[in-house]
Design a protein that fits this description.
The structure is a homodimer. Chain A contains five helices and three strands; from the N terminus they run H-H-E-H-H-E-E-H. Chain A is mostly helical. A three-stranded antiparallel sheet of chain A has the order 1-3-2.
Amino acid sequence: MTKHSNDLDTLFAALSDPTRRALLTRLARGPATLSELHSAHDMALPSLMAHVKKLETAGLISSQKQGRIRTCRLTPGAFTPVQSWLEEQHRLWTGRLDRFDAYVTQLAHPSQEHTDDARPKD
Amino acid sequence: MTKHSNDLDTLFAALSDPTRRALLTRLARGPATLSELHSAHDMALPSLMAHVKKLETAGLISSQKQGRIRTCRLTPGAFTPVQSWLEEQHRLWTGRLDRFDAYVTQLAHPSQEHTDDARPKD
């Protein structure tokens, strides 16, 4: 498996949990300390820290400790691989629909391609 | 947890596997039979079918059986909830950077706000 695939595995898995998505949404507004994040979630601190750790491992956030305070930040461009993958699917899907349109047009106006046919003109 | 959150949980979890992403990429190009999908993947048919089932449960694809042939299709708009969630994060992040820009501008030109304040109304 390529590194890029592994990245996407980890990224999508990190995004598959509502607490982790809520943490990301909070951090998209700006940095927050671990205790600020904890106060917004009804769960034990170790559980919250496990979610934070998963987001860090996926490269979606980073954290820094100063004294006893750990501050978390969203990683700039964190969602780029996910966004790129989605755009690729969209490009393939749109390309497919364009080919389908061309096919339907060809079915509706078959004479355009075969003007040399012996078929008598109306 | 809201239905929407559950949807996102299932969608992101479905996308966290390289085989399932490869199946989606194949189906973005157009429908394919189960045996066509199987021939492109070096795994036992039951394993492949389990991946197909997960994609169906997440609403990303649908499948239809005619005789002994099952054909799979990408669901139109399948990625919309994921795309919307990403756009919301981008909007929050950009809004934050805009506020940061305004703050830095204010720091650099602190007099501007006071001038505005003191300016008599038209």
